[in-house]
Design a protein that fits this description.
globular, three-stranded antiparallel sheet, 5 helices, binds FE2/S2 (inorganic) cluster, disordered C terminus, Sufe protein. Chain: A, alpha+beta
């Protein structure tokens, strides 16, 4: 399997790893088939994501995509973060092998789930759809 340099970089040196205490939004998602789990923490001020951290127990592509996703949404508004699709993450990583595309869906799902958690906390209706990472892949 061929990974881009960007993927290898974010896998071996992931950005924004960790947790945020008293995060404003937390999203935990998983893919039942491969068993990978991703947890995303957001610190929000006004409508800006001022900080963002993640913990991923999963494959290299899941770690690289969550790392890239945090880089892409940090400092952005919630509205901008909700526009982050897995495709954007994959492009920023200069591609992923087809069998690994679901790992990037997990990153998109984690960000949106964390925003949904924040909306629920502040009593705002969740008015967007969270695409689920598909189970139909062969794992590893
Ligand atoms: Fe399932 Fe990467 S998240 S193999």
């Amino acid at each position: 399997m061929q990974y881009s340099e960007k993927v290898m970089d974010h896998f071996t040196n992931p950005r924004n790893v960790g947790e945020i205490e008293n995060a404003d939004g937390v999203g935990m998602v998983g893919n039942a088939k491969c068993g990978d789990i991703m947890k995303m923490y957001l610190k929000i001020e006004g409508d800006v994501i001022v900080d963002c951290k993640f913990k991923t127990f999963g494959c290299g592509a899941a770690i690289a995509t969550s790392s890239m996703a945090t880089e892409l949404i940090k400092g952005k508004t919630i509205e901008e973060a909700l526009k982050l699709t897995n495709q954007v993450v994959v492009e920023a990583l200069e591609g992923l092998p087809p069998v690994k595309v679901h790992c990037s869906v997990l990153a998109e799902e984690a960000v949106k789930t964390a925003v949904a958690d924040y909306y629920t906390k502040i009593g705002k209706p969740v008015d967007f759809v969270i695409e689920k990472s598909h189970d139909d892949h062969d794992g590893k």
